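Bug #77: duplicate submission created two jobs. Keeping one. Sequence:
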Amino acid sequence: MKKKRSARERRSPCPLNASVEMLGDRWSLLILRDMMLRGARTYTEFLNSSFEKIATNILADRLRRLERDGIITAKTDPTDGRKLIYTLTQKGIDLAPVLTEMVLWAAKHERTGNQPLIQQMRQDKEGFIAAVKDRLAKQLGT
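Kept job's structure:
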């Protein structure tokens, strides 16, 4: 039986490899998009916020992986003990510039939607990233 790797045990010491191992599937990136840009914080919000229609088992798995890798945290909802509230950690918030660049790259090379968001990013990329990071940091209480 194969031994599972811990979050710190990677196939190679290459930084890009570590990034790919944590974020290299589309669902993880789309979950982060929904958290950063759409304000999704609960399991149900993730299911309902995405045009891509993530399967429930994949959503549960990716949320666990993102939490394991320290990109998000999960806390019990104080108003409903059956629900979890997901929040980006500082490590997750630090991905805002990366996701912004990915959006701008795709908009440059592919036919994409959400042109108002893309225009906002293009007009003041640094301001856009700072606003996103500030809003997310407030959720953390920092």
